[in-house]
């Protein structure tokens, strides 16, 4: 129904406007007494064999929603009704910021892809915390970044602020230094500044009564040498895992007219590269740390390929927009069918 009727209508409108409309629609529907139960009946796959123990956490199933969809933690409970095993909110920054000028979100229909240059638009971490205080049973990841106006030499302070603010309200953290839409942010992926940032957060985490897992989200555009640096950094700082991958700045093989728009590309063109990165990290590290695989998952086969490459969990974003919530159910069923 989604692909046949709903998506064609949604795709007639501006992507960012329809995103906000969809949020309002999902929120409204979930206020109707029977709808949450209906969504769960339609999309949830309840089976203990899908549970995954990772980072000391129990994931009800290995299919999550990637950061960027529910930036401000406004809809995590309702989205959880669609079958996700976990929801990652953010990227959040210390202060609210409007992000980059519109238009900044583009569909590439011929490529089953999206280009975004949102620029960490969010209301600030403290607003998100107020909403997260209402959370009852959704496993939440907190994706954190720096404000646009914060220079890289002061970036650690922004990450520390978000870490402290979110600590009691998320189950794990994701350090985002790989978005292409904040000027110079990706320079923080260099070995020295990244090691310093992650070590600071690890030391801060160690002082807490109960530690939270810390993961690093990396770009798909890193070279093999840079990926070896990532492996070394994970070993040195002893962070808990890696999310591979964020959006790409590559435009290879695209067919759509708006393929030259600036920003990060997500969706089907990223499928192979993100899997390559997952496989490289898993093989070269001898599977020394957990990996969450994200990038171009538009089918159950795509998800299984990432799991086979070395991912422990997977996340959806663009595939969820193009394929709808049935994709979550089909992935979980495919996993069960292989057991």
From TrEMBL:
SUPFAM superfamilies: FMN-linked oxidoreductases. Its main location: membrane. Substrate binds at residues 71, 116-120, 176, 181, 246-247. Keywords: Cell membrane, Flavoprotein, FMN, Membrane, Oxidoreductase, Pyrimidine biosynthesis. GO terms for molecular function: dihydroorotate dehydrogenase (quinone) activity. The active site is at 179 (nucleophile). It catalyses: (S)-dihydroorotate + a quinone = orotate + a quinol. It is a peripheral membrane protein. PROSITE patterns: DHODEHASE_2 (PS00912). Binds 1 FMN per subunit. InterPro entries: Aldolase_TIM (IPR013785), DHO_dehydrogenase (IPR050074), Dihydroorotate_DH_1_2 (IPR012135), Dihydroorotate_DH_2 (IPR005719), Dihydroorotate_DH_cat (IPR005720), Dihydroorotate_DH_CS (IPR001295). The keyword Cell inner membrane does not apply. FMN binds at residues 67-71, 91, 143, 176, 217, 245, 267, 296, 317-318. Its EC number is 1.3.5.2. CDD domains: DHOD_2_like. GO terms for cellular component: cytoplasm; plasma membrane. It is found in: Cell membrane; Membrane. Residues 50-339 form the Dihydroorotate dehydrogenase catalytic domain. Pathway: Pyrimidine metabolism; UMP biosynthesis via de novo pathway; orotate from (S)-dihydroorotate (quinone route): step 1/1. Its cofactor is FMN. GO terms for biological process: 'de novo' pyrimidine nucleobase biosynthetic process; 'de novo' UMP biosynthetic process. Belongs to the dihydroorotate dehydrogenase family. Type 2 subfamily. Monomer. Catalyzes the conversion of dihydroorotate to orotate with quinone as electron acceptor. This is Dihydroorotate dehydrogenase (quinone). The gene is pyrD.
């Amino acid at each position: 129904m989604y692909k046949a009727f709903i998506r064609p209508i949604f795709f007639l409108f501006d992507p960012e406007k329809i995103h906000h409309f969809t949020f309002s629609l999902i929120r409204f529907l979930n206020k109707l007494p029977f709808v949450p139960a209906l969504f769960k009946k339609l999309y949830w796959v309840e089976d203990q064999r899908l549970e995954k123990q990772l980072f000391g956490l129990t994931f009800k199933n290995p299919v999550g929603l990637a950061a960027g969809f529910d930036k401000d933690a406004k809809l995590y409970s309702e989205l959880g009704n669609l079958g996700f095993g976990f929801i990652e909110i953010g990227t959040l920054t210390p202060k609210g910021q409007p992000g980059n000028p519109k238009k900044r979100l583009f569909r590439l229909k011929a490529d089953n892809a999206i280009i975004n240059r949102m620029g960490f638009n969010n209301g600030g971490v403290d607003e998100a915390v107020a909403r997260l205080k209402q959370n009852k049973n959704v496993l939440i990841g907190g994706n954190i970044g720096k404000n646009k106006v914060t220079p890289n030499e002061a970036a650690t302070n922004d990450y520390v602020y978000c870490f402290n603010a979110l600590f009691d309200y998320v189950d794990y953290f994701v350090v985002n230094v790989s978005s292409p839409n904040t000027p110079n942010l990706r320079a923080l992926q260099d070995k020295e500044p990244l090691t310093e940032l992650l070590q600071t957060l690890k030391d801060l985490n160690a002082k807490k009564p109960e530690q939270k897992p810390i993961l690093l989200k990396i770009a798909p555009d890193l070279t093999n040498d840079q990926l070896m640096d990532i492996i070394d950094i994970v070993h040195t700082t002893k962070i808990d895992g890696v999310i591979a991958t964020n959006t790409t700045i590559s435009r290879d093989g695209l067919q759509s007219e708006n393929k030259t728009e600036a920003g990060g590309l997500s969706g089907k063109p990223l499928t192979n590269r993100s899997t390559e990165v997952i496989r490289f990290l898993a093989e070269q590290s001898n599977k020394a740390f957990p990996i969450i695989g994200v990038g171009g998952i538009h089918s159950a086969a795509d998800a299984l390929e990432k799991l086979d490459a070395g991912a422990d969990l997977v996340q959806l974003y663009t595939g969820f927009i193009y394929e709808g919530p049935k994709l979550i159910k089909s992935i979980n069923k495919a996993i069960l069918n292989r057991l």
